[in-house]
């Protein structure tokens, strides 16, 4: 593996590719190229450690190590059984395989995963008379198998557990938002830690914690115990330690306020537990408050939230969204507010025209991330007609 010029593929959610590309550039990525749900770049081993530790909108970080074409399962197996696997996997290590398949020839990801596993095990058995073990739960080495028609790409997964698993989520509500999606939403909304932030329906607190991490420039994985690259044979512990120290020395003080409201006492309790796990009790305030009875208390203010919607939590949609619009108009003048929703009919009841609409996915749900600008006086926001 050429550790000076690694070809790196970084996976993300649909709609967050540009945000991720900006993050990569800021951290020093070379040849940054935006793809569908991914960004490709180049960097050295230290850069690979740094992006795993720091990127907020990355789901996993892959290093392609072997590419070939296969037109049937025999070719697939033969190519894999001739690859020098000991470069990347020790016979005493455990391994697992993730697969993504888009092919008429290879239709079932489970089948090709088993074939690849057989090829690896047979290779070691022939060469060393010993075989590495499969471990699906917590493998030391993780391979990613990607098949697009006939093109097969084998990558090393440098992250291990998906990077949305930040390590601070101890409790979750009925429909928590993914940490990577939450951070992407905040960055799309322009949150940079200047001013104040409100999540008026905060649930278990993910948006609040991600907002605080951005405001303080805390590395996204500051609470993570382990990355897959730490099990690689070229792992440089001293280099990783220096990178962590450098990143932590960049952490800054935040002087604004980050506030969360919710009407559900159980949700607030979950939020407090997560905030404590993230060591943010001094930075984030949560309180029992019905948003519809609230008034603007923080100036300037950015509001971002994930209101409940029917697929996830049962509410009376029309009335609920109408109340959101009424609260915006009467109690939050001169405020920028963003919300995410999959109920594109119900959001019309807000009665304000969104100034921006961004298509995102919350799990499998197609949503829109909507921006509303509330003005006082002459610049009244246009009502939606009809």
TrEMBL record:
Top-level taxon of the source organism: Bacteria
Pfam families: RlmL_1st, THUMP, UPF0020
UniProt entry keywords in alphabetical sequence: Methyltransferase, RNA-binding, Transferase
Cross-referenced Gene3D superfamilies: 3.30.2130.30, Vaccinia Virus protein VP39 (3.40.50.150)
Molecular functions per Gene Ontology: 23S rRNA (guanine(2445)-N(2))-methyltransferase activity; RNA binding; rRNA (guanine-N7-)-methyltransferase activity
Keyword Methyltransferase: yes
InterPro entries attached to this UniProt entry: DNA_methylase_N6_adenine_CS (IPR002052), RlmKL-like_Mtase (IPR000241), RlmKL-like_Mtase_CS (IPR053943), RlmL_1st (IPR054170), SAM-dependent_MTases_sf (IPR029063), THUMP_dom (IPR004114)
Enzyme Commission number(s) of this protein: 2.1.1.173
Residue span, THUMP domain: 47-158
Keyword Metal-binding: no
Record-given protein name: Ribosomal RNA large subunit methyltransferase L
Organism: Chryseobacterium potabilaquae
Gene: rlmL
């Amino acid at each position: 593996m050429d550790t000076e010029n690694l070809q790196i593929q970084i996976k993300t959610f649909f709609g967050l590719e540009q945000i991720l590309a900006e993050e990569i550039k800021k951290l020093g990525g070379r040849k940054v190229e935006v793809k569908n749900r991914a960004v490709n770049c180049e960097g050295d081993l230290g850069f690979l450690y740094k992006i795993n530790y720091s990127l907020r909108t990355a789901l996993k970080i892959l290093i392609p190590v072997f590419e070939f074409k296969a037109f049937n399962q025999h070719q697939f197996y033969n190519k894999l059984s001739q690859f020098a696997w000991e470069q990347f996997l020790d016979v005493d290590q455990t391994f697992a395989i993730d697969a993504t398949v888009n092919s008429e020839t290879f239709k079932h990801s489970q089948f090709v995963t088993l074939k690849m596993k057989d090829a690896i095990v047979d290779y070691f058995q022939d060469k060393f008379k010993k075989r590495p073990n499969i471990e699906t739960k917590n493998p030391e080495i993780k391979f990613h198998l990607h098949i697009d028609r006939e093109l097969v790409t084998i990558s090393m997964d440098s992250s291990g557990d998906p990077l949305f698993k930040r390590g601070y989520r101890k409790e979750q509500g009925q429909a928590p938002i993914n940490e990577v999606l939450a951070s992407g939403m905040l960055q799309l909304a322009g949150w940079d830690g200047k001013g104040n932030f409100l999540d008026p329906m905060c649930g278990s607190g993910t948006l609040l914690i991600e907002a605080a991490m951005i405001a303080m420039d805390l590395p996204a994985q500051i609470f993570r115990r382990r990355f897959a690259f730490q099990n690689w044979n070229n792992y440089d512990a001293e280099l990783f330690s220096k990178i962590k120290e450098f990143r932590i020395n960049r952490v800054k003080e935040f002087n604004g306020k980050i506030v969360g409201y919710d009407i559900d006492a159980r949700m607030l309790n979950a939020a407090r537990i997560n905030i404590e796990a993230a060591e943010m009790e001094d930075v984030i305030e949560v309180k029992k408050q019905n948003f519809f009875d609230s008034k603007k208390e923080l100036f300037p203010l950015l509001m971002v939230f994930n209101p409940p919607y029917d697929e996830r939590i049962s509410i009376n949609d029309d009335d609920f969204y109408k109340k959101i619009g009424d609260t915006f108009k009467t109690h939050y003048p001169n405020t920028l507010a963003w919300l995410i929703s999959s109920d594109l009919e119900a959001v019309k009841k807000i009665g304000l025209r969104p100034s921006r609409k961004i298509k995102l996915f919350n799990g499998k749900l197609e949503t829109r991330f909507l921006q509303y600008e509330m003005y006082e006086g002459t610049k009244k926001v246009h009502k939606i007609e009809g």
